[in-house]
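Page 42, continued from yesterday. The earlier attempt failed because a stray header line got pasted into the input along with the sequence. Redoing it now with the clean sequence only.
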Amino acid sequence: MADESGNGKSSVMNNTQLRNFLTKAVTDVFGTMVSMKVELLDSNTTANLEGERLVGSVGFAGRATGAVYIHVTEAFARQMTGAMLGMKPDEVKNMADVQDAVGEVSNMIGGNLKSHLADNGLSCVLSIPSITRGSDFRIEAVGAAQQQRLVFCPQQADTVVIVEVYFKADQ
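This time it went through. Structure tokens are written below.
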């Protein structure tokens, strides 16, 4: 479908395109920022995180509106932070550093999605990353036209990373 400018670019991504793009974005960001390979699990995986977790999120608004959420356990967030700072996970003591690391990973994945949406005629701006921390909460998006929930398994970690994206494209 061509956009209004007639340049032939699709203004809406289907779920398969969104899933494929997010998979590449997540694997690239984890490979570059965390020096860790992550593998997408089967789409029927219903894994959830137990106990204390951190959720990094960035919102976007414009011709596309929505949010990207990255769910990780606190232990894995410390492992990510250590990898990003060149430290061992047990050396990471400052929770502000952990939150910054999770926020930066969510910001980079959100930034990749923002660029991809803009390339498809859906310009938007990102919010600053925010962190939610706790053990008993749910994330719900109201009014999202498309959503994806992807579960990744990081190498050398006994956990999963859950990436959720909710968005609606302006037609």
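Notes: The chain is about 35% helix and 30% strand.
Reminder to self: strip header lines before submitting.
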